[in-house]
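Example record

The entry below shows one chain as it appears in the dataset: sequence first, then structure tokens.
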Amino acid sequence: MPDYVHGYSQREAERLQDQAGAVRKYLLEDTGYEPGNLVLEAGCGVGAQTVTLAARSPGARFVCVDIAEDSLVEARRKVAFAGLGNAGFQRADIFSLPFAASTFDHAFVCYLLEHLTDPAGALSSIIRTVRPDGTVTVIEGDHGSCYWHPVTAESIAVWNCLIRVQQAYGGNSLIGRELYPLLKHAGLAGVEVSPRLIYIDQSRPELKDSFVRKTIIAMVEGVEQPAKRMGLADDRLWKQGIEDLNRVADSPDGTFIYTFFKATGKVTEK
């Protein structure tokens, strides 16, 4: 697995929480599991999605795995703070999950595949653990779907730095558009992909703060050093590009659009 492009700092944990809160109603309001279901959350990170999943399906049980122990510590803290008792955590490599075949009724994956050099292999590993007729849900963004006003050459350049740095780390920040073939080639049946467009203008100031400033701009700022090391930007370009992105969040005329993709499929007989 490549390095996580955004790192594991406390600021990144906060960014993930900001992002989860900003887009929760767009991505998770139609995800729920029946009482008694056992659900694998693969790549749970700091638990930003776990709290919502567990709260929405109090009768289901969640087994949440991640490779980063520090992230799991934060995830356990979040779930405990929320008073939820139906989610457990353990460290595991997504490519060698320590579960027997058909252990789970369902699996949930969010913002994981974009960071992997072998997303198809990860899906195969996850699907193995889900029983026949169980479902797999995958949510990913697509940085190519992002655009804004006012736009400048510098703001586009620093945004593209994020895409290129993640690519250099072995990931694919454009993977949202690939979910349908990925799930189909993995052998899932009845695959459906639903685009979830986030549109933000001055009538939604809370999203300008939580999504544009605290999620998107913070994500770009996180790759400043690798972008400069790779020669993708110099100090002048970087400073101007970040200022221009902040202008989108600050300006009454600023607008911002981003699309997530949510895919579901059913596991067939094995």
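Notes for this example: The longest helix spans residues 10-27. The mean pLDDT is 92.
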